[in-house]
Amino acid sequence: VRAAAVPATPLSRFAQRCFLRVKRSKRDVSVILRQDLTNLGPRGTVASVRPGYARNFLIPTGQAVYATPEALVSLEQEADKLRQFHEERAAVTELKRLRRRYMRMKLFFNRGPVTKETVLQCVIGQYGLDITPEQVDLPGDPITAPGKYEVVFRPLEGLEIRRFVTLGAEDEDVYAAMAFYQGDK
Fold it and tell me: How far apart are CA 129 and CA 102, in angstroms?
C-alpha cells in the first residue's frame, strides 16, 4: 500500500515501511524482567515490549515472564524477601564493623584508679564509639591494683566484646621493651 502524496525515493520508501510497520503492529505486552537487561531495565522491572520480542526471545530464554496478576503478586513477595535479605545483610555488616572497631581497641592506663567513667572517656575520646556506663562491665569498680583486667562491652543486645584493660606496666615484656629503648640490656 502506497501513500499517494509521498514521492517514490528510497528514503521515502524506508520511511513509509517504518510507518506502516508501526501502524500494523499489535499492542505492546507487559513483561517482568527476570534479569538485568541493558535496553529494558533492571531485574524485577515491568517493561513494555513488542509481542514478538517477548514471545520469541524473552520468554523462551527465561529473561522475562508475562506480567499477569499472579506474576505481579509473586514479584511483590520476591521484592519483600529481597528487601529483608538486604536489611539482614546490612545488620550483619554493621555488627562486623562494630566488632572490628572494638577489637582494635587497646586500653592502657599509667595510674589508677580506673573506673567506668575513665574507660568511657578513653573509648569515646580515642575510638569515637557510642557507649553508656550500663554497657560496660569492670571486674572491680574502681580498679586500683596494677595488672591486666578483662572488661566486657555490650554495645548491642546479643553482642558481647571482651577486651583487656592494663593498669600500670605489670607485664615483663613491657619492662623489657622499655629497658631496651632506654639503652639497658
Answer: 8
